[in-house]
Amino acid sequence: MSADGPPGRLFKNISAKIASIPMILTAVVVFLGGTLWTVIYSFTDSKLLPRLNFVGLAQYERLWSTPRWIVSIENLAIYGILSLIFSFVIGFLLAALLDQQIRFENTFRTIFLYPFALSFIVTGLVWQWILNPDFGLQHIIRGLGWENFTFNPLYDARLVMFGIVLAGLWQGTGLIMCLMLAGLRGIDEDIWKAARVEGIPTWKTYLFIVIPMMRPVFVTTLVIVMAGIVKLYDLVVAMTAGGPGTASEVPAKYVYEFMFRAQNLGQGFAASTMMLLSVAVVVIPWAYLEFGGKRRG
């Protein structure tokens, strides 16, 4: 039998396969096992401790009839839509500017990416100070003479999510910029030369030629951003603790509150399962586009 047959392929790179066993076991036991355990117990009436007393869809019916959960979903939708739009637009524009071989590019890239090195807790505290009406932006501008200037989104239930979006954009846009810049640097220089020869304006080259060629970069960036949106928690806790009232409540905070404070594990498991489904809605199409298309090719 040829060495390239099934037995030969099985023992190829055997050292690497043996070394990967702990990682595979961790993924299967911790991640898949924990996920399955959470889904199963979301159909029970577990309170302080998990117990296999199944109640069907009762936890999910209660979840979707709770105004606090509905508010958290609406807030996440607002944050997600605005974050996606502005982070992609600003990140791409910054990447396009840096792609012009400007002076001190490394310095600007470091400055834009630096906020991403900070934790969400630090970012939340910094922006809590910036948006505080007593000593933040509002106080500074009033000190310059504009006595009637008002800007305190964290204390206004109608605007609080927009304040959180500002903080999220400040931290995450630098990463988007770097991903986009890497994609731009991968575009063949001959394409730019051909566009110049044809007299195509730069903005049209970006819009109709470069951006379609960067589809894999956009898809990967979308998955990264969406994963960060779904697990939004630290930023909200640091800036508003979910307030005023429940105006900035998000699903991850809802899960934490019910699992560790309200001592209602069943309800927390149901909420976390819904969060898992939202992640699957993003990851499965991405995996199909990335790997299914390659197999067909």
From TrEMBL:
- State the family named in the UniProt similarity comment for this chain: Belongs to the binding-protein-dependent transport system permease family.
Q: Where in the cell is it found?
A: Cell membrane
Q: Which organism is it from?
A: Amaricoccus solimangrovi
Membrane topology term: Multi-pass membrane protein
Per UniProt, residues of the ABC transmembrane type-1 domain are: 73-288
Transmembrane region(s): 21-43, 76-98, 110-130, 159-184, 205-230, 269-289
Is GTP-binding among the key words of this record?
no
This protein's GO cellular component annotations are: plasma membrane
User: Which InterPro entries does the UniProt record give?
Assistant: ABC_transporter_permease (IPR051393), MetI-like (IPR000515), MetI-like_sf (IPR035906)
> Which Pfam family would be a valid example here?
BPD_transp_1
Q: What processes does the entry annotate via GO biological process terms?
A: transmembrane transport
Return the protein name.
Sugar ABC transporter permease
Q: What CDD domains does this protein's entry cite?
A: TM_PBP2
Entry keyword Transport: yes
PANTHER family of this UniProt entry?
ABC TRANSPORTER PERMEASE PROTEIN
The alphabetical list of record keywords is: Cell membrane, Membrane, Transmembrane, Transmembrane helix, Transport
